[in-house]
Specification:
The protein contains two helices and three strands; from the N terminus they run βββαα. It is α+β, with helices and mostly antiparallel strands. The protein has one domain. The longest helix is centred in the middle third of the chain and has 16 residues.
């Protein structure tokens, strides 16, 4: 899984003051990807809490152990949230 934020991530934004947070799945070789979750947000919204909401929703839907890796940009790093996901079995 990986996450991306902003109107520059492969699509035109609905409005310049909007962006989105995406949760995508890919194989190890990066040969394909598909969207698992996406949320359209205000451009001034901080993306980190939104990403972790998407991850929590994903884990509630598919259960623990399905997500093997979560690759994020340094802007998403949050030690407390990462520790929570790790101990949760996600």
């Amino acid at each position: 899984m990986t996450a991306a934020f902003g109107p520059e991530v492969g699509r035109k934004a609905v409005h310049p003051e909007t962006g989105w947070v995406e949760l995508i799945h890919t194989d190890e070789a990066g040969e394909f990807f598909f969207f698992v979750a996406m949320r359209l947000v205000s451009g001034n919204a901080h993306e980190s809490p939104i990403l972790y909401e998407l991850v929590e929703e994903f884990l509630q839907t598919v259960g623990p152990g399905v997500m093997k890796w979560l690759v994020v940009d340094r802007g998403f790093l949050d030690g407390e949230k990462m520790a929570h996901l790790k101990t949760r079995g996600g």
